[in-house]
């Protein structure tokens, strides 16, 4: 285990720096858009560009990697991201910024794909689940710490954009110096969405809803915090609390979902998410500490919906179809993430900043009702449950690590059954 960690330490450092820059630039652009005088709807349009780009990149960036290799493609993606971050300060136009976010999202997906496939190649079945957990912790710590990078400058000036560009450039160094062998990229065959939905309607719908709410928080959370009167420092605390809350609650809730009916746990998590969202609205008139506590609870519960939903689909899926299932869930999450910020911004425009959590509460309530109906229609299955695996709610992943970890878990289970039978 420790030998494996040592061999992938440089990859995790690069990934952590990517998440550091990602967390910083998402908050920075939300605030800067409002400073530039863009409407809330326009800001939502700009922010959704990244998630559309990440969806496209997660599906097609593998072609770039296959053509030029992991190291060259990573260097190219990082260079483009450094340029696009700086380009925001050259021309403040919504269409131009949307195009920049589209390019950034594509490159980000490609860089994550490089890191994930490389880490996956260096791990083995016995420790892949633990490696995935460490990978996700790195994601949350990087994204959460990135919020505090906002304290290094004024969002109305250019310095923070320069810092973000430098972070993306520095992320190149560890992965360029690694001695780990670059793996051969894979492009999993995707399952038709209709077939995927029939496997587990609750899991697929939950994945879409998670994409909508998580992407909305990533893209518009800072705008909400600023418009309810928080300072820049308090906005950083607000966003970081949501992210770190998601990191802390992933494992305990995930383990609970392994023991009980996953759909029941999903209802409980979604209900708590909706209540905590309403609590955030209430807390906007309370002290900053109460508001931070409420958003930490919201982030903690909200970011568990994605992995619980994904695990529910894996519970119901044919074990030979895990790769296709994984790719299909990626599309489902990406569709939700591409819609969320736009719809959330419309609610904020109509009802004020509190409309953000009115929107997320509505999404969560819809998921609860849908899940209850499905529980009534289909009784709890008796198939072997796939072990819960953590998934980051801050970005769209290529999910190579997740698929490999679930497959490894199934192989161990099958091996254990075979031993008992023998």
The helix-strand sequence is: HHHHHHHHHHHHHHH
Summed up, the domain count is 1
| CATH homology group | MFS general substrate transporter like domains
Mean pLDDT across all amino acids: 83
Strand tally, please?
0
Low-confidence stretches: none
Overall helicity = over 70%
Q: What is the end-to-end distance?
A: 29 Å
Structure class: mainly alpha
Q: Report on the biggest sheet.
A: none
Q: Assign the CATH architecture.
A: Up-down Bundle
Short précis:
It is built from 15 helices and no strands.
Structure description:
The protein is an all-alpha fold and 422 residues long. The chain has a single domain, classed as MFS general substrate transporter like domains (Growth Hormone, Chain: A). Helix content is 80%, strand content 0%. It contains 15 helices and no strands. The longest helix is centred in the N-terminal third of the chain and has 34 residues. The protein is globular. It starts with a helix and ends with a helix.
Essential attributes:
0% strand, Growth Hormone, Chain: A, single chain, 15 helices, 422 residues, mainly alpha
Topology of this protein?
Layout: H1 2-35, H2 40-68, H3 70-87, H4 94-122, H5 128-148, H6 159-170, H7 172-177, H8 193-199, H9 201-227, H10 232-259, H11 262-283, H12 288-316, H13 322-351, H14 355-377, H15 400-421
Helix pairs in contact: 1-2, 1-4, 1-5, 1-6, 1-9, 2-3, 2-4, 2-9, 2-13, 3-4, 3-6, 5-10, 8-9, 9-10, 9-12, 9-13, 9-14, 10-11, 10-12, 11-12, 11-14, 12-13, 13-14
